[in-house]
Specification:
The chain has about 130 residues and is mainly alpha-helical. The protein has one domain. About 75% of the residues lie in helices and about 0% in strands. Helix 1 packs antiparallel against helix 2 and helix 3 packs antiparallel against helix 5. The longest helix has 27 residues. The protein is elongated. The chain starts with 11 loop residues before the first helix and ends with a helix.
Length: about 130
């Protein structure tokens, strides 16, 4: 490693905070989204001071998951006007997608990997 490369030293508190943030996002559906808003605010606050690329990627991942979920919920809201069943199906699909994203990111963080595989990300942009 060259003397110009900087490898930040992570404390156990930083790692625990990321686990708490993923936990808050994952349990958000049980609080009608309140826990997700709290986690989102903490993601924005911590993202600004982050120097570790893995941690920064996970903050961005959680932030984008929140905003995409909110967008999908707003787009599917008119289905509730048709009947209850289409609204429930749409919201269930969004819930499952949200849980998948949270659990996938959480598992990848626990393994010390970025939330999205960089090799797959480069394939999707071509």
């Amino acid at each position: 490693m060259s003397p110009l490369e900087f490898t930040p030293i992570r404390s156990s508190g930083d790692r625990m905070l990321m686990h708490v943030l993923y936990g808050l996002h994952t349990l958000a559906w049980f609080s009608m989204g309140t826990l997700a808003v709290v986690a989102l605010l903490l993601n924005y606050i911590r993202r600004g001071d982050e120097v570790d690329a893995i941690y920064l990627a996970h903050h961005r991942y959680m932030i984008s998951t929140f905003w995409w979920t909110l967008l999908w919920l707003l787009l599917f809201a008119p289905l509730w006007l048709l009947l209850v069943f289409p609204g429930w199906l749409a919201y269930l699909a969004v819930l499952l997608w949200y849980l998948y994203r949270c659990l996938k990111g959480w598992l990848r963080f626990n393994a010390g990997r970025p939330p999205v595989d960089p090799s797959l990300e480069s394939l999707s942009s071509t």
